[in-house]
Design brief:
It is a single chain. By secondary structure, the chain is an alpha/beta fold. The chain folds into 3 domains: about 190 residues, P-loop containing nucleotide triphosphate hydrolases (Rossmann fold); about 140 residues, Rossmann fold; about 70 residues, Alpha-Beta Plaits (2-Layer Sandwich). Helices cover about 30% and strands about 20% of the residues. The strands form 4 sheets. A 7-stranded parallel beta sheet has the order 3-4-2-5-6-1-7, with helices on both faces. Strands 10-11-9-12-13-8-14 form a 7-stranded parallel beta sheet, with helices on both faces. Helix 2 packs parallel to helix 3 and helix 6 crosses helix 8. The longest helix is centred in the N-terminal third of the chain and has 13 residues. The protein starts with 7 loop residues before the first helix and ends with a strand. The model has no long low-confidence stretch (mean pLDDT about 90).
């Protein structure tokens, strides 16, 4: 049996977290003492850790079945929670199942059942119908970003799943939205509510919303000027449609502005790689739909750029929630054609005059793919050793390492990337010959 660790400080040390924030402290106390909980907190404030810590304390190390089920609206959120759970290093197995990857991969992982199962409603319901895991030991149910699951049409699947959980005695519902409709089938009776949301109609106190006037209807040249104006700081450019993203992406590429794209029609692999490159600095800009507004594991960013405004105020709020988090300042820019009527979302926003600045320099980082991961017993330390010792990189030349189940990614100086591939491709890591390529 794996070495089981439940001591909180040990877990926080593994995550390189010194102390919990006030929301997480309160959530732990409330979840420990109540069976029905609603946790309301903005995106990026640490809700995942807030509910995982008390859940892990209740897990039985001698039980070989699923004990906690976490239902999420998106693949990215499932992967993110699985990653956090594994990085906690408790010894309890966690697996994420979701649409967009082969069902056979799920079945292989579920041959040895996890204590914590995370997944999207459609994929979890499918596994239940096939009898791939038992529900008799599932005592805790988490509905993470619950309103988003309803919004994207998962109500029937969630109802089917919840009705198949006879032994659940603790229900935790999380959201970044206050106006929640909670259907009766959830079984959430007299819940204790933890509310860290800003009052309706108010923005985060450190968020500035500014309007930028575009002389042209397509706003493309203005967008480029905005990205030059913010001098290559991390930013998300929000669009409403896939076609718009493709048009914007083409224009940014023509203007030599590095960026990634993120929208629902992309292959899962490509969406994951966009986020990896954003986290490690290969890209400073993501052009995205509202899919990127919630539930993604991306760092604090200073700028949100609304190339197109969403139709609903709550989506505008969620987009802006990507910045000005946890006492940090942030700015949301709204690009508006000069002949366009001002939106009610930005009625009081001041107009920003752009400074003429040069095109941002290309990133100094490049991301390399490694064809081995956790299942090969490879650790981040093994990868660091390969690049530092055999690749002869200095510590400040080794960027962020992300370790997945069957592969890994590492950022290295762009000027050194080809040299690293030539030196290290087909080397061994933990007795496995790995391929190393640029992505």
């Amino acid at each position: 049996m794996a070495n089981i660790i439940k001591e909180q400080q040990h877990i926080l040390d593994k995550l390189s977290i010194k102390t919990l924030n006030p929301m997480q402290v309160e959530a732990e106390l409330v979840i420990n003492s109540n069976n029905n909980i609603v946790l309301l907190s903005p995106t990026g404030t640490g809700k995942t850790l807030a509910f995982l810590l008390p859940i892990i304390k209740e897990l039985d190390a001698d039980c070989g079945e699923v004990q906690a089920l976490i239902i999420v609206p998106s693949r990215e959120l499932a992967i993110q929670i699985e990653q956090v759970t594994r990085e906690m290093g408790t010894g309890f197995k966690a697996n994420a199942v979701y649409g967009g990857r082969p069902f056979s991969k799920d079945k292989i992982e579920l041959n040895h059942l996890p204590a914590i199962l995370i997944g999207t409603p459609g994929r979890i319901a499918d596994h239940l119908r096939r009898g791939n895991f038992s529900t008799k030991n599932i005592a805790t149910l988490v509905l993470d970003e619950f309103d988003k699951s309803l919004e994207v049409g998962f109500e029937e699947e969630m109802k089917e799943i919840i009705l198949a959980l006879p032994k659940v005695n603790k229900r935790i519902l999380t959201s970044a939205t206050k106006a929640l409709r909670i259907p009766k089938f959830v079984g959430l009776n007299n819940p204790a509510t933890i509310n860290y949301l800003i009052e309706d109609g108010k923005e985060a106190p450190l968020l500035k919303i500014k309007t930028i006037i575009s002389p042209t209807k397509d706003k493309l040249e203005t967008l480029v000027k905005v990205l030059c104006h913010i001098e290559n700081k991390p930013a998300i450019v929000f669009c409403n449609f896939r076609d718009t993203i493709e048009m914007v992406s083409d224009f940014l590429a023509e203007n030599k502005i590095d960026h990634g794209c993120f929208y629902g029609g992309m292959e899962q692999k490509d969406r994951e790689r966009t986020l990896i490159k954003f986290r490690n600095g290969t890209h400073q800009v993501i052009v995205a739909t509202d899919l990127a507004a919630r539930g993604l594991d991306i760092p604090e960013i200073k700028y949100i750029i609304h190339y197109q405004l969403p139709l609903k105020l709550d989506e505008f709020t969620h987009r802006n929630g990507r910045t000005a988090r946890m006492n940090a300042e942030g700015t949301a820019y709204v690009i508006q054609w000069e002949k366009e009527k001002r939106s009610e979302f930005t009625a009081d926003a001041e107009i920003e005059i752009l400074q003429n600045k040069p095109t941002p320099k290309t990133s100094k980082w490049e991301t390399l793919f490694i064809s081995g991961g956790r299942k090969d017993k490879i650790s981040k330390g093994d990868i660091a050793g390969l690049f530092l010792k055999q690749g002869k990189l200095s510590k400040d030349q080794l960027g962020i390492i992300e370790l997945k189940q069957d592969c890994a990614f590492v950022s290295v100086p762009a000027l050194k990337a080809n040299e690293m591939i030539k030196m290290l491709n087909n080397n061994k890591l933990k007795n496995k010959k790995v391929r190393i390529t640029s992505i």
